[in-house]
Amino acid sequence: MIAAKQVFVALLVTVGTCCATLDLQKYEEKVKAQLAAEGPGPYTDWQMYEAAVEMLAAEANKSHVELLQTSAQSTGIDLNCLPQKSHTVPTSVHRLRPSDVKVVGAIGDSLTAANGAKANTILGLLTNYRGVAWSIGGEKDLDTYLTLPNILKKFNPDVIGFATGNGGPRSSKAKLDVAEQGAKSGGMAEQARTLIDKIKGDESIDLENDWKVVTMLIGGNDLCDYCEDKESFSAEKYVENIQAALDIFHNELPRTFVNVVSVMDIVEIARLQRTFTCDILHFFLCRCVSYASDEALEELQAVNWQYMDLTHQMIDSGRYYDREDFTVVVQPFLEETKLPKTESGDYDKSYFAPDCFHFSLKAHAAAGKALWNNMLEPLGSKKTDWHPGEPLECPTEDRPYFATVENSAPSFASANQAFFRQFTSQNDNIRPVSGPSAAVIVGCLVLVCVAVGGAVFALRRRKQLKDQDILRKPLLQKSTDMASTLVLT
């Protein structure tokens, strides 16, 4: 009797999955037909996603169903740090305090554009709520929204460049947030060029003397399309693309601290229990993750970690350590972050927009806090994950500066900096060495240490992959009531 019931349940699941698959195919056909009516293809993933959002919203309205998502209206926080100001404007990035920062900027994708961050309905997913974006939003103040610029305002009320309100990357309120929804790493060089042009064209910015903090997060969309073109979205190509953007900053921006935020563990998205609405939107937005087989998902996980590993290797090579007024630092707080859970053990959907993919206001606040804390943490001791309830850190008397390779470990950094200044030039040409041979020996030892550290990091990643037990929940569930399935719970 029990066996018969199990077979019956299995048959129901199979039938439901087939029906849901047919529904997805139906939506894909309808989306393509709608886009074709507006103009010829080919169509980007983001265009198809937007069309699917509009279609689902229309169906919800016909059913008189309002798509509600519990969302915080304020993410403010108190910050009681002792004021620490430089006596004079520093000339070294290794002596950069929060109060010295005058300009903020950002490049990236829809996470930096804050798509759907304050959305209470599905249509809100099409809005860029840039004013609350974790790395570049400056809407109101820290008492209302927790973002990196709002934290910096506590130290320097005159900081500029942050976004406010809503709008696209070319809207007046976007300011120096040039992130584009749907962007991939291949578009970062163009965004870097755009950001520099905007900085140079802003009369309120002193290019040579104002200290700038620029933040980049990219790679999620590359991974979401990995199964479609493994060569174009390989880890090597990804790093090549972000290096091209960083080279532009390095060549043209004086007095700049660049945050490169490591791409998140995208496979976490596959573990989130979703509604039928989210299943449809993931089909257009990230099917290489949400609809991957276990084998394909394991391969994607390995590539995901390669994105992280090769990013560290590229930055740690010293490519951007040859100037006193410029540096690039990897901020790894997303690398091992897991989806937050409620007290009941379920994944906490309040951290997501109504598509179960983009950050909600709550997640933007969490990312802004984690980024700030990472910026203060010395290299070698930076947190690679984030957990709810973590405090917002303050600079201390011992560590008053944003952490760089030089001020994180003075003895190591001095040798490292000396080595690269002797052996490299801005165009990466080798030049003759002057000075005692001891400096060469120290430099070589530094390189060995970096190589060993990278190898250990890579081995740890491979072990994680081997031990990883990827739990998959059914991605397709057919509801007998279409209206009820469109309600986000």
What fraction of residues sit in β-strands? 5-15%
Average per-residue pLDDT, rounded, comes to 82
Structural class: mainly alpha
- Adjacency order of strands in the biggest sheet: 1-2-3-4
Shape: globular
How big is the Rg? 24 Å
Major sheet summary line: 4 strands, parallel
> What is the strand tally?
4
A few lines on this structure:
This protein has 489 residues and is mainly alpha-helical.
Written account of the structure:
- The protein contains 15 helices and four strands.
- With 489 residues, it is mainly alpha-helical.
- Helix 2 packs antiparallel against helix 8.
- The chain starts with a helix and ends with a helix.
- It has helices spanning 2-38, 45-62, 110-113, 148-155, 188-200, 220-224, 235-252, 276-285, 287-290, 294-316, 361-376, 405-408, 410-423, 437-467, 482-485; strands spanning 101-108, 211-217, 256-261, 326-331.
- It is globular.
- The chain has a four-stranded parallel beta sheet, sandwiched between helices.
- Helix content is 43%, strand content 6%.
How is this fold's topology laid out?
Layout: H1 2-38, H2 45-62, E1 101-108, H3 110-113, H4 148-155, H5 188-200, E2 211-217, H6 220-224, H7 235-252, E3 256-261, H8 276-285, H9 287-290, H10 294-316, E4 326-331, H11 361-376, H12 405-408, H13 410-423, H14 437-467, H15 482-485
Parallel strand pairs: 1-2, 2-3, 3-4
Helix pairs in contact: 1-2, 2-8, 5-7, 7-10, 10-14, 13-14
